[in-house]
Amino acid sequence: MPPPERPTHRTNFAHLQGHDEQLVRLGMLAERYFADDPNTALLKLRQLAELLAQLVATHVGVYTASDEPQFKLLHRLQDRGILPREIAQLFAEVRRAGNAANHAIIADHRTALSTLKITWQLGVWFHRTFADATFKSGPFVPPTPPADESEEVRAELE
User: Do 127 and 13 meet the contact criterion of CB atoms below 8 Å apart?
Assistant: First the structure.
């Protein structure tokens, strides 16, 4: 069997390739959609975080079903001491931003960028926890800015 394909361009999620290529694909899509469609970027980040939580549950032997609501899974993982409080809060933030994007079609570049960073942090935590405790990710690389970026988004990207 040939080795898994490596992403062809730089992504903040490349370190997740060995865990599940779907994680990398979702991260790359979120980065790609950021400039033109922050709503879709948030939806992809929500999907990535849901998959990460399912993989956490799988690694520790408490995965039950793919249709378990993310809210319940996160509470279960936190109640069992699997997710540190800070990590559970990051997962909850991605879930809330994804819900707003999905149900209220609320999304802006600022929210998408902060959620992109949070999801990246979750990916780094996951990789350190389940693969390489000494992993050094390097700095977060901002995605391509939107054509009409505001001063606030410009400052955040820098």
Answer: no
Q: What is the predicted pLDDT for the residue at 87?
A: 97
What secondary structure does DSSP assign to 42-70, as a single string?
Answer: HHHHHHHHHHHHHHHHHHTT----TTS-H
What is the model's pTM?
0.86
List pLDDT tens digits, range 99-117. 999 998 877 999 999 999 9
CA end-to-end span of the chain, whole Å? Answer: 42
What are the tens digits of pLDDT across the range 127-138? 999 999 999 999
C-beta neighbour count of 103 within 10 angstroms = 8
- Continuous segment of H or E residues that includes residue 116: helix 109-130
- What angle, rounded to 10 degrees, do the helices at 109-130 and 21-33 form? 160
DSSP state of 5: P
